[in-house]
Amino acid sequence: MKYILYLILLLSAKALVAQAPGDTATIRQPPVKKIRHTAVKKEIAGTAIPEAKDSLHNNPDTAIAWLTGPFKAGKGILSYRDVLKINPFYNFFALPENLVTEERNTTGKETLFYLLAGLLFFFALIKLLFNRYITNLLGLIFRGSLRQKQIREQLLQTPLPSLFLNIFFVIVAGLYILFLLEYYRMAPHTPFWLLLLYCVVTVGLVYLVKFLILKLTGWVFNMRDAADTYIFIVFLVNKLLAIFLLPLLIVMAFSLPSWTNILLTLSYIMVVLFFAYRYIVSFAPVRREVKVSQFHFFMYLCAFEIIPLLLIYKVLIHFF
């Protein structure tokens, strides 16, 4: 049996040797492309530059253009100073140049934008901190007389938001007067901030003097309740006027010039309506305290409301 196995293996080996090469089942692998890396070298003044790497290594044409294009140097040994001189990207040995910068003069409305944004933020802060006061203030216009008296007592018990809204009115009224002066070109050479300061201080002084005169009159004639009622209504209407006038001022500041006449007319109508509302609302409580006719009350309004405004207008025209 052992000899039979040897004989089978011997015959098998001879059969494998006798097979033709074409009959052999071979596994062909795809041909491997050989990437030839061209060593880019150039002698600059006798020194060999090594082969470029990274992107230059994969793109020999770019390397040749980069090496042969910028550097134009002759044969010989170059010093460090010479190498810097032939560098086309950095001009190390040129004369320094003086660059004169001029101050940029702004001609936009950035100052007015930040001022109006500050006024909006100030009113939003008052609304956030004293929301109930603002709600009662706006609702007081549409309430009855009994409810008005109750809300008035609530408003008088919170003097801090009243003070903030009075300051808000003085600034808004001063800005409105500034717009009128600029529209009618009454103060063309006065700086913006200085003119705004004049307007705000003038409005503040007018209402401060008015407040003191009314207080003094009520104390002298023993009519403090009537004076306090009238003062409350005057400053109440002023606060409402400032709240409704601010959006109109924002539109006036950034609208087209063709809209100015329309917006000014709307502002005039708004101011007249608020003054008329103040006259109507203040007449009834004052008449209950003081026996005064409508004619005498109208004469008072002309003497203490209209004439001071006309005098301020006359002074501004003469001064500016």
Write structural notes for this entry.
There is one protein chain. With 320 residues, the protein is mainly alpha-helical. The protein has twelve helices and two strands. The chain has helices spanning 2-18, 55-58, 60-68, 80-85, 110-129, 131-139, 145-156, 159-183, 192-220, 224-254, 260-289, 294-319; strands spanning 43-44, 47-48. Strands 1-2 form a two-stranded antiparallel sheet. Helix 5 (110-129) packs antiparallel against helix 8 and helix 9 (192-220) runs antiparallel to helix 10 (224-254). The radius of gyration is 46 Å and the shape is elongated. The chain starts with a helix and ends with a helix.
Low-confidence region ranges = 13-30, 32-70
Oligomer: single chain
Tell me the fraction of residues in β-strands, as a range: under 5%
Roughly how many Å apart are the termini? 137 Å
